[in-house]
Structures are given as structure tokens and as C-alpha cells.
Write a structure and sequence with these properties.
The chain has about 325 residues and is of the alpha/beta class. The chain has helices at about 55-60, 85-90, 110-120, 125-140, 155-170, 185-205, 215-220, 240-245, 250-255, and strands at about 5-15, 20-35, 40-45, 70-75, 75, 95, 175-180, 205-210, 225-230, 230-235, 305-310, 310-315. The longest helix is centred in the middle third of the chain and has 18 residues, at about 185-205.
């Protein structure tokens, strides 16, 4: 059974206008997203800024309420649960934020921050809580003697380790990591990513890993979902995605990533124009206004996310089910 199942997730933010502040439109931040994450698996979600990645994470965490769709934790539907009814399930899904400094109370010591969930969920108190926090500090690579320090006394990488320890403290099934290494130096990024991988192997955690960095995704993910304007346009395992991307947007993302070997030559797929407004997305395929392979049907047909090959789902009418991944012909 998957640790996390999301089916048809929708999150629209209303646009209010006029004297009476009536709803005159909506920002379609997430527009029908579906995926599942198994035990010990990492699903990476990648895309440009504003594509809806972080909104998916916040909605799955029930930090914001979904407009439509269903969210299941280990088979339990938590979509419509109230704040009180959701409380017992919050222990099963935790988060690691992009900026650990702003997500932690600067007036609390590091030990109090990591130990707070243990008290909130009635897991441990007193000396038992202290011992558990010390063990968590050691597990994430921090010295227990630093438990009495405040967050401003830690480096960026150490603060992120505090965030990981806090998320790990309640033994969750799922961790949502929203850009957890984007604010860190490259060398520190590798250390934190390797720590997350080790913890996943040890506890069989399921990760929903959100990032814009394809190199990071390649290192930590098992499968990768590519988002554009609130929708998943391609999802498959990472090896297949990097070897044979089938959606033009995925091809463009990979072409924009730097190549370690400067002698390696490759064709650059450059997409033109800006990302359309999520308040008024284009009809048909949302990507057709920027796609160099678009045909007239792309303006009217809204492509569903279909499995065109084993484990490889793509939302593109030019990629029929069972077809060989031949290069598309440019139309512009």
C-alpha cells in the first residue's frame, strides 16, 4: 500500500474584485495532480517557479485546504478532516522547510525545538525526552552539547540538520521536503542529501521532494514528476526521464541544465515567451503557446496524463500510447 496517495488534487485561490469583493476569477495553482509514493521511495517534483510545486506540498500537508481531489495517508482519506480530526494523522506526515531559520522559534533552544513534537504528541517528556533529543542530534550529525544553543548560533547546514531531526522525531511515514538544500552551499548540499538518503534507508521513509535543481533530483529521487502551470506533464523513473524525455517541456528543462563536460555537444531546445498566468491558462495544452512542436490540435485538445510506456506517463497528444520515442518535428 502506498504511504501517500494523491488523486485529482486541485487548489484554486479566488480572485476578489469590485466594491463587494466578489469572486471574479481564480488562480489555478494546482489543477488536477495525481501521484502515489511507496514505502522507501522518493518522488521528486520539478518545474519552473510558479508551477505549483510548493502548493502541492502545502496542500498534501493540509496547511492549506484543497479545492478538490483526495489525499490518503496509508489508505486513510484525510482530505476533508477538520483540524482536530487531522491531529492524530499529523504525526505520520512531517515537513522540512527551505529556510530552517525562519521556520524555527528563535527564542527556543535547539533542544527545545527538536523535542517540541515529542511533547505535543505525548511521546516523551522529562529525561526520556532529553535522551531522545540527544540521540536525534547524534543521528543527524550534531553534538548533543549544542542542545542548549539557539538557532542563530548554528550554520545554515546545521540548522537544516535541526529541521531534519525535528521532522524525524515523531517517526513519520512521509516527509515533504520543499527545496531543503537550495539555500546551502554545494558541498553542504551533498552532505544533507546523503543524510536524507541514509535516513530513508534506515526508516523506509517516503519523500515528496520538491526542487527546481535537476542535479539534486537526479541524486535523491527514484521517480520524477515534471510540473507546468499546475499540472504534471511527465512522470517516470529518473533514469528514463534523463535518457528519453518525452514531453517538450521536460526536454527544454534538461537542455537548460549545465553539462559538466564542456566538450560535450548537444542541441539546445529553447522555449520562447513567458509562462502564462495561472489565473488565465491557455486552452488545450497549457504548454502549446511556448512549444516548438505544437500543432493546431494542441490549441483545443487538453491532453490527459497517459502511460505511453511501462511506468512512463506523459501529457502530450503527439506521444500516443505504445509509440516509439522518436524525435518530434518542429513546427515553428
Amino acid at each position: 500500500m502506498p504511504r501517500l496517495e494523491v488523486d485529482g488534487l486541485v487548489k484554486h485561490f479566488p480572485i476578489l474584485g469590485g466594491v463587494l469583493r466578489r469572486e471574479v476569477g481564480a488562480v489555478r495553482a494546482v489543477d488536477g495532480v495525481s501521484f502515489a509514493i511507496g514505502r522507501g521511495e522518493t518522488l521528486g517534483v520539478v518545474g519552473e517557479s510558479g508551477c505549483g510545486k510548493s502548493t502541492v506540498g502545502k496542500t498534501v500537508l493540509k496547511l492549506i485546504e484543497p479545492t478538490a481531489g483526495t489525499i490518503r495517508l496509508a489508505g486513510v482519506d484525510v482530505t476533508s478532516l477538520s483540524r482536530g480530526a487531522m491531529w492524530p494523522h499529523r504525526r505520520r506526515i512531517q515537513t522540512i522547510f527551505q529556510d530552517p531559520y525562519s521556520s524555527m522559534n528563535p527564542r527556543l533552544t535547539a533542544g527545545s525545538i527538536v523535542g517540541e513534537p515529542l511533547s505535543n504528541f505525548g511521546i516523551a517528556s522529562g529525561s526520556e525526552r532529553t535522551d531522545r533529543v540527544a540521540a536525534l542530534f547524534r543521528r543527524v550529525g550534531l553534538r548533543p552539547e549544542t542542545m542548549t544553543r539557539f538557532t542563530h548560533e548554528f550554520s545554515g547546514g546545521q540548522r537544516q540538520r535541526l529541521g531534519i531531526a525535528k521532522a524525524l522525531s515523531v517517526n513519520p511515514d512521509v516527509i515533504v521536503a520543499d527545496e531543503p538544500v537550495s539555500a546551502l552551499d554545494v558541498s553542504v548540499q551533498a552532505q544533507v542529501l546523503n543524510l536524507l538518503i541514509d535516513l530513508q534507508d534506515e526508516h523506509q521513509l517516503a519523500y515528496l521532494f520538491i526542487s527546481h535543481d535537476l542535479a539534486v533530483m537526479r541524486h535523491i529521487s527514484h521517480r520524477i514528476a515534471v510540473m507546468y502551470l499546475g499540472r504534471i506533464v511527465e512522470i517516470t523513473d529518473k533514469a528514463r526521464l534523463f535518457a528519453t524525455p518525452l514531453h517538450p517541456y521536460t526536454e527544454a528543462l534538461l537542455a537548460a541544465a549545465p553539462v559538466p563536460d564542456p566538450r560535450r555537444k548537444r542541441e539546445r531546445l529553447v522555449i520562447q515567451g513567458d509562462v502564462p498566468s495561472p489565473a488565465k491558462p491557455p486552452p488545450g495544452c497549457h504548454f502549446h503557446t511556448r512549444c516548438p512542436f505544437a500543432i493546431p490540435e494542441c490549441r483545443t485538445i487538453d491532453p490527459p496524463l497517459l502511460e505511453v510506456a511501462a511506468g512512463h506517463h506523459v501529457a502530450c497528444i503527439r506521444r500516443p500510447v505504445g509509440a516509439d520515442p522518436v524525435p518530434l518535428e518542429r513546427t515553428r
